[in-house]
Amino acid sequence: MGIEANDIVRRAWRDLPPRDRVLLEAICADQWKVCKRELGTYTDELLRSADRGSLSAEEIARANDALALWVPELRVMLINDGHPAFDGLDGPTLTYDLSRVAWHEWGHALSLDRAGEEDIAAGERYVELLPEGLAKLVRQAGYRRREYTHEVVAEIYAILMIRRRQGKTERPPWLHPEVYELVRRVAG
Amino acid sequence: MKPVKLPAGYRLPKGATMADVRRLDQELLASEGLEVQAHKAKESQRRTPREEK
After folding, report:
1. Higher pLDDT, B2 or A154
2. Of A134, A146, A40, nearest to B9 (Cα)?
3. How many CB pairs (< 8 A) connect A and B?
4. Partners of B9 in the beta sheet?
5. Residue A30 contacts residue A22 (beta carbons within 8 Å)
6. pLDDT at A128 over 60
7. Which end of chain A, N or C, is more open, meaning fewer C-beta atoms within 10 Å of its C-beta?
8. In 3D, which of A21, A46, A24 has the Cα closest to residue A35?
9. What's residue B41's pLDDT?
10. What pLDDT is recorded for position A136?
11. In chain B, which residues touch A (CB < 8 A)?
């Protein structure tokens, strides 16, 4: 019997610090759906059926590339577990990847609601303060400048959760204190 | 109608894979004696690739 993606996400949810779960519930960010759909097209369908507008063709194409999405308009996280990036993974690797992606998206939910204009404006600086490999990942993934802060929060939030599963809860030595403070302020 | 709030997604750079992400995580975690907890499954636990479903 295969590993159910939904069970993995549920476990990732349960592994969040209780305070974070309460916070996510308070901002109505505790719903998710695992599907095998291109997420831009699917999100557009959901928005239209809820009479909440629609996405542009460019935005649909952009979101179709995504492994997961936080959809603030509908307060739901969508994960495309049929994305080629998840193909051929063994159980522990799929668990690692899906958990990481889910934590990233919950980081987004918190960041989009709680980051201030000054935080967003400082996005480029926060990316510069990341470890080199992570900074490169954010820069090369085609995010807009105004998304940088949200990406920094989401990526670091996901890695903090990975560490938490292994019993580490303090600031990682490789993380710049300013970035750590940003994530704590916005996400915790 | 109000403009739609755009979704925030998890995307990989062109040509990158989740294995690249795990390698990056491993570098960071290894600096504190931790590890990426993956790649430990038996062959029988492997997921069927999408095109074979």
Report:
1. A154
2. A40
3. 155
4. A69
5. no
6. yes
7. N
8. A46
9. 39
10. 96
11. 1-14, 16-18, 20-22, 24-25, 27-29, 31-32, 34-43, 45-51
